[in-house]
Amino acid sequence: MLPEAIEAMTAQMAKVGNASSLHTSGRLGRRVVEESREAIAQDMGARPSEVLFTSGGTESDNLAIKGTYWARRDADPRRVRILVSMVEHHAVLDCVDFLQAHEGAKVTRLEVDHFGRVRPETVRAAIESDPEGVALVSVMWANNEVGTVQPIVEIAALCHEFGIPVHSDAVQAVGQVEVDFAASGLDLMSISGHKIGGPQGVGALLARRDATLVPLTHGGGQERQVRSGSLDVPAIRGFAVAMRHATSHRVVGAQRLVGLRDKLIRGAQDAGFGVQVTGDWEPGDCVRRLPGNAHLLVPGCDGDSLLYLLDAAGVQCSTGSACQAGVPQPSHVLLAMGMSEHTARGALRLTLGHTSTDADVDAFLAALPAAVERAQRAQVATSPKQTR
Amino acid sequence: MRVVAAMSGGVDSAVAAARMVEAGHEVVGVHLALSQNAATLRESARGCCTIEDAGDARRVADMIGIPFYVWDMAARFKQDVVDDFIAEYAAGRTPNPCLRCNEKIKFAALLDKALALGFDAVATGHYAQIVQGRSGVPELHRAVDMGKDQSYVLGVLDAHQLARSYFPLGDTTKAQIRQEAAARGFYVAAKPDSHDICFIADGDTRKWLTERLGERPGDIIDADGTTVGRHGGAYGFTVGQRRGLRLGQPASGGEPRYVVEVQPRTNTVVVATGDLLGVDVIAGDHARWCGPPPTGVVSVGAQVRAHGEEVPATAWADGKLVEVRLQRRIRGVAPGQSVVLYEGTRVLGSATIARAGTATAAIGPNSSDPTGKAAASGVPAAG
Description:
The complex is a heterodimer of chains A (388) and B (383).
Chain A: H1 3-13, H2 24-44, E1 51-54, H3 57-75, E2 81-85, H4 90-102, E3 106-110, H5 120-128, E4 134-138, H6 152-161, E5 166-169, H7 181-184, E6 188-192, E7 203-207, H8 233-248, H9 250-269, E8 276-277, E9 293-297, H10 303-312, H11 332-336, H12 341-344, E10 347-351, H13 358-382
Chain B: E1 2-6, H1 11-22, E2 26-33, H2 51-64, E3 68-72, H3 74-90, H4 97-116, E4 121-123, E5 128-132, E6 138-142, H5 159-162, E7 165-166, H6 174-183, H7 205-213, E8 218-221, E9 227-231, E10 257-263, E11 268-273, E12 279-289, E13 297-303, E14 311-318, E15 321-330, E16 338-343, E17 346-357, H8 372-376
Parallel strand pairs in B: 1-2, 1-4, 2-3, 4-7, 8-11
Antiparallel strand pairs in B: 5-6, 6-17, 8-9, 10-11, 12-15, 12-17, 13-14, 13-16, 14-15, 16-17
């Protein structure tokens, strides 16, 4: 976490007062919440009333999708179609799976190109098969695994031609690329605290004032009657401080991260193992791919072996998105991009952030050859074979 | 040493990992994911592959301060253990999947992957002991806790595998391990022992096999060849089995009858009264030796199932084939199970039981002398 966010948060923790209460300490808490709301709104190009605090990106995604689905279906029972990209985070994919299984939703999973990008014409074609039946469209701002930035503005504009609300999970994008809620045309956008150096367990759903949402939690009526529950004042304060830091340092930080990212990718490609970069990578670009994302495919390796070997060498990375049981599954994102399960097993995701340095990239490139060589032998040892 | 501690999520492997750390080794905990669609929570004392078990293992790894990984061996496990299990039953034999898992997964796929990644050895929570022999070759011995001894299911390990394995619990009783786990603050200290076959969740092997092999009705005949009943699939029966035969009438003497032979080719189950069940000659194949193979006829103790009793015998090995002559007849020797040979507490090796019979009589009405091959090789009768 960002030191400034820790400081602001811990100072707030010493203060009592439920922001929903009317007494003096409650009013003081409320003031902190509203100042934080205004700051986040300003940083995100939104109005304060459009910021609904939640427990994080997953809750924001669920509130946006279920809340909109139910509200739109209530208004017109024909609206049961949900369009989502195939490369969404599980907070979106599992949410629409739930609505499909229990609430009669008809889900269209939008195909992506080999960069993992949704083409606007794909969205248009999917809508046009039955425009009146669409409850909502959800496409993430930037992919968490391969870093591909989606054409959100174009997608939002074409959905609005049909009067269809659009949601985007922007958790990965905030602080990395320019995110402006009003300019994007989106109706709903999910953001989270911990991806920008803030605390875990806090986030927000940005919802246009005309977005109608059926609440998931009922109670005290906080947050525009949509998200009941006492607010976590210290976390919200830490979130706002981190957001201000992330957006004000974004341009300079992104240029630095792009430099590190390009060095890392070039170095890995030059290591001589046939390492490939996935997604949309062009040296120097910081618009089409998240600046801090390097996603590599290492042939003949299991990503989890590489992860262990690199971790032992002091380099922390991941194979995809973390999963519950820790059992590595081939990434649905890579499969959607047209890769085979075998190829997808060699995925290695390296995320660079504000603490990453040139020396970190050097350490990774130094550790890579030995790790690849061992991981390739380990894969031979565990592959199913005819005889032993 | 850099050691992978295989951690199932149970109490034994938890203490084994902790003991390896305390012995000064550089330890990494590894949980093997053996099922492609693991259940979330444990529902019984069977199995060790739920997400809850992986979580238990991870919690212990956190407590003892070691890195922890889940390695997906589901594809290898299916091929080498589950598919083999089905094929063996379909062929009228009774396999021991735990032995196969040790041979093909824990001390092969897991060990090979660990060695490739730069580790020196694998440690497990098995109750058995590795003793450095006089010649410097590691020897596999029974655990001190004979109630928990698992040397039987490790009888497939060769010298290469033993030299790269640690069994840190072999010198301790199970009761003491539970106490030690509690003293270490492991909340798995009181977790029930796992038993039965981990991939058959409800323990109903015949139902599980029927789902995979289908109903195959056939005859149950007695030693004279008379049809005495019907069955739903010969693969569901094991030599020595008495329950589940559903024979209409009892034997003429009123004695209970048991399965004495499963004939997969004709889908026939042969039953007889108990006196025909005893055997004293076992022909084994697929022999695996923990050290150098024995030469000539050697005196051994033979054990034909996990936690079964050890019977004095002589054994004679010829490549992958073994003939074992027991000093007294024992019942329920099922083809497909393993015969593990001991010298004192030391495991010499094992073989898969191909046929069993008596030194004087053949076993089924339709079978040729089950020991004919071995007898023809001129083995002297056991004394």
